[in-house]
Amino acid sequence: TLKKWVSLTSFISEAAVKKLQPESGWICAFSEVLPVVAGRHTQDRAEQHLPRFDAECRSYAEGMARLPQMKPRAGTEIRFTELPKQMYPDGATPEEITRHSMDLSYALEKVISQRYASQPLDVLAELQFAFVCFLIGNVYDAFEHWKRLLNILCRSEDAIGKYQDLYINLISVLYHQLGEIPADFFVDIISQDNFLTSTLQV
């Protein structure tokens, strides 16, 4: 319904869409990819010291190594903010590394400073955009980005005081998003660990 759509996209402006959508303007469930290096022909594979296609694999690792390295075709990937892999500043002491690993406020500040310094609330637009791309477009990469961004938001305790409006509105955003998915959707089949439970408990 229109009411449901509005509740799931309340922070997504036209400017946010232009910033996040692929340059091609098309969002697809599966990214269009190209091989990093040519390997279609036997001669190409020989030049790269790869075995022939018809040679039998001797192990799983060998089979995985034979798969071509792929990269998204330029202009087809969703332009999400690059989330930091290192959650602490360079040169941090062991104590600081521990603190920044428990409280991800430093990582959140890096995310905000990259694209949202003038309007931190636009982080919620990206969170909603990722969720809608997964919910409607079945874009798995968008789901993974949504999980990682939500994890940073929920584990940034020191940032709550600085970005009060952001966190007040995050509660509403999450409320509407969680109403669209089954309760057991986030349970890891192997570990039985629920991503949301562990994230929201922090």
UniProtKB/TrEMBL annotation:
Pfam families: AAR2 (PF05282). CDD domains: Aar2_C. InterPro entries: AAR2, AAR2_C, AAR2_C_sf. Keywords: mRNA processing, mRNA splicing, Spliceosome. Residues 80-201 form the AAR2 C-terminal domain. One of its GO terms (cellular component) is spliceosomal complex. Signal peptide: none annotated. GO terms for biological process: spliceosomal tri-snRNP complex assembly. Component of the U5 snRNP complex that is required for spliceosome assembly and for pre-mRNA splicing. Interacts with PRPF8 (via RNase H homology domain). Component of a U5 snRNP complex that contains PRPF8. Belongs to the AAR2 family. This is Protein AAR2 homolog. The gene is Aar2.
